[in-house]
Amino acid sequence: MMRTISLLILCLVAQMPAIAQLDTTFFYGSVLAARSGHIIFQQSHGFADIEAGIPNSPQTNFELASLSKVFTAVAVMQLAEKSYIRLDDPVNKYLEDFPYAGITIRQLLSHTSGLPDFEIFDKAYQAQPDRVFTKEDIIPALKAWGPLKLQPGGQWSYSSPGMGLLALIVEKVSHISFQEYLAKQIFKPAGMKHTYLHYVKDSTRAKAYSHPYYFSVEYENSDTVPRNQQFLHESGGVEGPGLVVSSINDLYAFDKALFSGKLLRNTDTMFTPVRLANGELAMAGKNNFGLGWFLVPGSNIVMHSGYKPGTNTILLHDLKANATVIILDNGNSGGITQSGLYLMRTLLSAPAAGLKAAIIFPFGRDLVTHGIDHATLLLGNMLADTVHYTQVVRDWIAMGYELYRTGHLQESLATFRVGHLLYPNNDFLCMLYGDAIAKNGDPLTARELYQKALLLNPSNKEVAERLK
């Protein structure tokens, strides 16, 4: 079993007057914090390969998932800086078969193009579930997709295929493969000696691990977990939005090269918040967005994170303080973005809200391993500890349903029961709780819950169907 360890910052130098602890988020991988060119803190935890007993280290390579997008952004900005392309050029100037007129390179970079995400491959995946899709499959899939649901420039909407199109444009303009372009124009100048696209066989690369179920204590290789298969196939060969493999040390070398002017003469355009067609700032959740980077409002922090099953990554940089935080995780740990922001703000001696862990995971795991009574006792302690724990209704829905569908009926009932007590006015939770009660042999009580769910939300067609 993989032992999950809390990330603890043991001591900090003069720039960090207080000892900081990330004592409620679990971490499995490597972390680095630096300021003004000096590494303040660096540590690795856990195993790159559990079976072989190989520990994570500063030299361990991790697949970066969507953190790879920053390299695509830099590549495009390099070509624009050299006047090989213009950011406001239409995409079909370079990719003649691209089916949507008027979408620009700038809109692809800023996720304001209106293009969908990897769901463009859903139908083809269902037809060929063993197929691994590549960037060359994007334009045919978009042609089959038909009209866009979003107006280009109308809103921010994350589109990984848009970044794959940018990789195709880089190849078209540079006349070399995307992999070769990154190696020559970014990795080598930055001194990233061990970074590559994922096709290289590498004994130092960390395996990606996931819990097979939300309530699991044990870990498995993420590519063997059934629920991960569709995403891994739809994204697994698409260069541009992912597939870069790197280490904590190489990423820090990239950070220093980018922010010292070695890779781009000027990064202002990349880190300027993008505006939509109506003049409003494009909002990516609570953040602004530039060209390939998230921008944290009210600060000088730019960042990008990455997620795929078994992998969580993030790089943050404060433009004013020249401070950097990098976290690479191969244990599917939660809260990596929050941990990164917390560590950055601690590095800057700025106020930082305490980190909180979701109650549902320790509750669900304890429920399966120690039983309902022990898990209830644990839950009581966690509910009282609002400093370290948090909860939302969707957590109870997700855990209850996961237990239900995997045959843990009594544990599912216990989870839905607690969730219903905490959130009695959620119609979806009422409905699923009713399903579990019905399966347990009490259709009358189940019907009462269905009726309550319909009163809470008369438009819930699923529960109306159950009452017929």
Automatic annotation (TrEMBL):
Any idea where the Beta-lactamase-related domain is? 30-334
List the SUPFAM superfamilies hit by this protein, alphabetically. Answer: beta-lactamase/transpeptidase-like (SSF56601), TPR-like (SSF48452)
Matches recorded under Gene3D superfamilies: DD-peptidase/beta-lactamase superfamily, Tetratricopeptide repeat domain
Give the signal peptide, or none.
Answer: 1-20
**Keywords associated with the record:** Hydrolase, Signal
Provide the GO MF annotations for this entry.
hydrolase activity
The superkingdom listed in its UniProt entry is: Bacteria
PANTHER family linked to this entry:
BETA-LACTAMASE-RELATED DOMAIN-CONTAINING PROTEIN, D-ALANYL-D-ALANINE-CARBOXYPEPTIDASE/ENDOPEPTIDASE AMPH
Protein name in the entry: Class A beta-lactamase-related serine hydrolase
What is the organism of origin for this protein?
Answer: Chitinophaga silvisoli
